[in-house]
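Customer escalation, tier 2.

The customer says the design service returned an amino acid string that "doesn't look like it belongs to this structure." They asked us to rerun it and document both sides in this ticket. The original structure tokens are below, unchanged.
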């Protein structure tokens, strides 16, 4: 199966359908290179200070820089892009009643970075065996640099979202998500994929923003990454999306069953 590709005018329904059919899809040049450059320049000081990963999964020549919502105003446009949020919601809310941001992270593969082990992102939840017709997560990787096979473009197996769980596919079964700056790869938490191998002298930088069913614990703790006094300065819909809203009936309340947005209002 080929990796489906759409242009920037794709509807969120088309993108959601591609996610259901193939488990992954690229939208070419969904945002401008200027926006990506702005995101990069806001985050570069933080990337610079980020240590390399400690193992083959986090990558010994890879930097992972988080807290994007608090650290980069320009990243908000990516996190709340209507085509992305609309399609992720379409897929996740087939089974869940609401969706949240799960993590925000720059993934910067340095020269010589090895390929990451192939995995499903939904294994983050302790390898819980989700029913095969549930999609609890949609991940996105925005290209901040061009993504090439040589610099370690994300490797993905279209159609593998329907495969058995806990498999160990080979590198040869994956295809590189080659895409230019401003494009985005979306994939379900059930799609087998990995970071590629960077054999160039340049960095491969992507903006990884994931969405998940709001009944699941977020991988990046949004209330520490973006505490109420900072959340008060951002758009209300984005604040709700990172977790300042109740999931399902009462998940995430505080005090006397108050809505999390009330915690923000005191700082406005
Ligand atoms: O760096 C990449 O292209 C993918 C990274 C990834 O899949 C992960 O960290 O879960
Ligand atoms: Fe992953």
């Amino acid at each position: 199966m080929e990796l489906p590709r759409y242009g920037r005018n794709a509807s969120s329904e088309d993108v959601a359908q591609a996610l259901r059919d193939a488990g992954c899809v690229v939208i070419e040049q969904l945002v401008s290179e200027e926006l990506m450059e702005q995101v990069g320049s806001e985050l570069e000081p933080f990337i610079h200070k980020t240590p390399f990963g400690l193992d083959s999964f986090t990558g010994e020549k890879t930097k992972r820089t988080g807290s994007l919502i608090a650290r980069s105003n320009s990243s908000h446009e990516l996190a709340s892009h209507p085509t992305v949020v609309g399609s992720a919601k379409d897929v996740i809310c087939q089974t869940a009643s609401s969706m949240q941001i799960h993590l925000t992270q720059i993934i910067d593969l340095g020269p010589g970075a090895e390929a990451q082990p192939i995995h499903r992102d939904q294994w983050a939840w302790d390898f819980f065996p989700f029913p095969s017709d549930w999609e609890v997560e949609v991940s996105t990787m925005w290209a901040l640099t061009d993504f090439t096979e040589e610099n370690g473009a994300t490797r993905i197996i279209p159609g593998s979202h329907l495969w058995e769980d806990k498999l160990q596919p080979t590198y040869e079964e994956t295809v590189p998500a080659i895409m230019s700056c401003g494009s985005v790869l979306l994939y379900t938490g059930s799609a087998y994929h990995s970071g590629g191998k960077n054999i160039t002298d340049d960095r491969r930088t992507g903006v990884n923003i994931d969405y998940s069913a709001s009944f699941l614990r977020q991988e990046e703790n949004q209330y520490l990454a973006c505490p109420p006094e900072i959340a008060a300065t951002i758009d209300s819909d984005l604040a709700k999306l990172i977790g300042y809203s109740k999931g399902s009936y009462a998940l995430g309340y505080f005090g006397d069953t108050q809505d999390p947005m009330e915690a923000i209002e005191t700082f406005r």
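Tier 2 assessment: The sequence is consistent with the input. Residues 119, 121, 193 surround fe (ii) ion (ligand 2) (CB under 6 Å). DSSP finds nine helices and ten strands in the chain. Sent an explanation to the customer and offered a walkthrough call.
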